[in-house]
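Aim 2 progress update. The chain analyzed this quarter is reproduced below.
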Amino acid sequence: MNIIMAGMDHSMAGIDFRERFSFTKPKQEAICDALKAMEGVRGAVLLSTCNRTEIYLSLDLHKECDPFLKLCRAASFDVIPPRQHYRIRKGREVFWHLCRLACGLESQILGEDQIITQVKEAAALARGCGAVDSYLEVVFRTAITAAKRIKTAVKFSKAENSVALKTLAILRQELAIERPGRVLVIGNGEVGKLVADTLAQNGFEVAMTLRQYKYRDNEIPEGVTAFDYGERYHKLSAFDAVVSATASPHHTLAFEALKDIASLPGIMIDLAVPRDIDLEIGRQRQVKLYDIDTIAKGAIEQSNQLQFQQTEDIIHKYHGDLMKWHHYKERISG
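Predicted structure tokens:
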């Protein structure tokens, strides 16, 4: 088993750099296909989220490479990131990192719940296009199982442990108004729905945008209204704040489109990578603009040393299971 990975995250590169390495699902599939076709590569999984881009490779025995350079090549990038913007891990360290990542210990917000789903989806996407070999399959399956065990057995401090709660805290602080604040949430994915639901439960008047072709496929949180995404500019001035959380490769709020709108929400929170809200809006209008790095800054608690040790013990156990499988596979194959 020769597993290697390279990863770029919020601790190594700012959002300006990370958003260049944020890929749509079709692009991820194309990259996995290209990686699998490279000499010496047996399997590949690409994880692309708002806070990180990671590439996991299963290689021929004794083969070595820089996975991030292969990723750039597979994505047809001309620019290669400086080495300080990503980290390479090999062997045991890959599994340890993947377990900690999947249970939320490597996130900007400690223990956040979305990452384990994102890890599962990354493995499923690579599996769907035939890019996963048996080694990566078992590594990811075992790490996800370990992460589930950690999340049920280890109780970390839950103070401000989600993007939704951080967003709520900022809006409570910024919107010093007597009436309930009116908030528009652009985006009806998991993060958008979680934010909308959290705000509605805490007394905000919340509206969400929905893509017309997705109306029948979405559940709107209780107490939240919805309107078509195409109407967002016409309705914008009715809100005190905007939160945008989509996977769109384009701006959901563009500076040029806002030029003729006299009154804008004073607070805009951009939870997307690449960014949803044009930076010029924050520079040239009376708008306070937050991004995902600002939202999550300082959210990781440092008072969980016992829990960290419990986590290490669980990972150690599952790593032992993985190595037993590996030794068995090596024996029966030859």
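The beta strands are 3-9, 41-48, 52-59, 87-90, 182-186, 205-210, 224-228, 241-244, 267-270, 288-290. The domain at 163-295 is CATH 3.40.50.720 (Rossmann fold). These observations will guide the mutagenesis experiments scheduled for the next reporting period.
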